[in-house]
Input
Amino acid sequence: MDKLFFFITMAVLSINCLPHNLTTDQEALVAFKTRIISDPNNILANKWLTNTSICNWIGVSCSRKWQRVTALDFSNFGFSGTIAPHLGNLTFLGYLNITSNNFTGIIPLELSHLRRLKEINMGSNNFTGVVPSWLGTIPEVQHILLDDNSFSGSIPISLLHNNSKLQTLQLADNFLNGNIPQEIRNLSALEYLSLSSNMLTGSIPFGIFNMSSLRKLDLSNNSLSGWLPNDICDGIPELTVVVLKKNQLSGQIPSNIYNCRYLEALSLSYNHFNGSIPSAIGSLNMLQRLYLGENNFIVLSVNCIAHNLSSDQEALVAFKTRIISDPNNILANKWLTNTSICNWIGVSCSTKWQRVTALDFSNFGFSGTIAPHIGNLTFLGYLNISSNNFTGIIPLELSHLRRLKEIDMGSNNFTGVVPSWLGTIPELQHIFLDNNSLSGSIPISLLHNKSKLQTLQLTDNFLNGNIPQEIRNLSTLEYLYLGSNMLTGSIPFGIFNMSSLRELHLTNNSLSGWLPNDICDGIPELTILSLSYNQLSGQIPSNIYNCRYLEVLSLSYNHFNGSIPSAIGSLNMLQALYLGSNNFIGMISFLYNCSRISYISTPSNSCNRPDFLDHLLQLCINGGYDFHHVKPVKQIHAQLLVTASLFSAFLSARLITVYSKISLLSEARKVFTNAPEDCFSNSLFWNSILRANISAFEYSKTLELYFRMCALGFQPDGFGFPLVIRACAMKGGVTLCKIVHCHVLQMGFGNNLHVSNELIC
Output
């Protein structure tokens, strides 16, 4: 009895909790609204209506499942007022952005209850008080932006304790004072640190230069003193921006600054640096902005821009020396040493710096190997050498191309493994390595945190092993091509949760296992699913209807079994369907809505049966299936020939009717001419060809067929004679029409309703 009471109580609580939470969220937002004293755009009055769901209020986003508030974005709304502590009750909130308004007062302590918060952006307001120490207790917070306010006091040490997920800390343009705490080194995942335009003093903690994830560091416009460590960048090799201008730093620029090889901006102006400018700066090939003014330097030792221009030319000359065949004489005639490399064919340069930004040598007919010197083209964003005859391995030095967005090396003869360093290129969006001789497994490091990759094309190689589970990390991937390799194992179910995926090509491997029941729930935009020529088994998931944008479904040559789900019939966008050579049972009866389809390959065990082929032809005739394309009709024609079904006068007549329907009278006549002799004793067969000619206004041909029919000893029936009478009326003379009328009477069709109606007309 006690257990029963417990379960009833829990059931009641679970029923009541959702409305309560919704009410709590609404109350929090209403409380927020009451604290707004200025709303110049009347957003709250016009867009926050109490008779509509809060999930429809502007700036508010909710979860689909629970309809709980998950994000608030009020940036640039022009609001003035204070922050209601009730916002702390939005316990599902993961994103809070109120930047660029005119909020004042302190940030309420109650916001510390937002345990799911991942980003808080309160920049460009007029908040006062101290930086909230409780921000260090939010377990999921990744981005804190409190810049351009009026915060004072020191940076709270508790903010810096064990915050292993924090990636952005932006406290610029406030009134913070004191030292930068040594504990800042605890922020192990920090990528962007901006403490500029405050009143910070003391030295820069050397621990900052061991924060391996750091990419951008801005401590400018403070009163920081001391010097830079000799091992600068040894602990932060990926650093791209260092801005330390307008401080009181002294000493020399460390000579091993060359370790900052990805540095794009270096700003040290308005300090007390002395000595010479190290020549190592000249080796910073990625450097775009250099500010060293207003210091105490005595020598300018290097012109790094000239060095970079020279480096690009040397790289291309080295590339040229590795070409052993140039059938079109491109290099001899179009790569002249007395002209700028930016005018060489296939080479594109930036307008401002005249640095090489793109190489397109596709279809040039080159043979040779790739010079590692190409890795010195540090401004290169696009590399296309597809459709040539390059051999050898892809050089490791190309990993230095940190700006690379697209690499296309398809249709060559590269060997070795797929380069794992491709996973380290931060801006890479498209990888094409198809149609080569690459071997080994798909490197897991290629799949780590590639948040920008949209295309991965590895088709037609010799890759083996499993598809790594880590492929699910490619959150922006739209096109995945792994076909024609030697991949084994099952398809990782994580692939079916890659929400950006549009095309999935895994055909011609040795993949096994089955498809998930919730296929397409996680990839609703999928247009192509190509899995043919594998060893997949099980049934086609019945909820494949969720793949509503599917245009191509290719599952042939596998071991699928069971019935083919009727849900395929709801795929209105489907253009090609390949299901042949599996173990399906039953018939297909669902093509009525697939109006765009132009290819059909059906299972051989049941779908080559005459009754099924007749079913497809009947769909064509009845208009339930839009066969405006010629190819699917010819496919059915071919199936009829293979199965000898055209020996059936009934099916031959159907096919003639279909060809007539799509205005292919010549094909209809071929079917008639090549039909077996038995067909010519069937009135339905004759009626179909008579009707086809009438539909094409071929009245003379209709009459010719009629007299041929009579010569063979056959006669039209009550459906054939009206066609002959119509042809006679349109083309024949009076004498001919009298002959036909006489035949009608002789054969006893004078009282036939259809014949009589045609005679009257």
Summary: Residues 1-20, 299-309, 604-608, 623-628 have pLDDT under 50 and may be disordered.
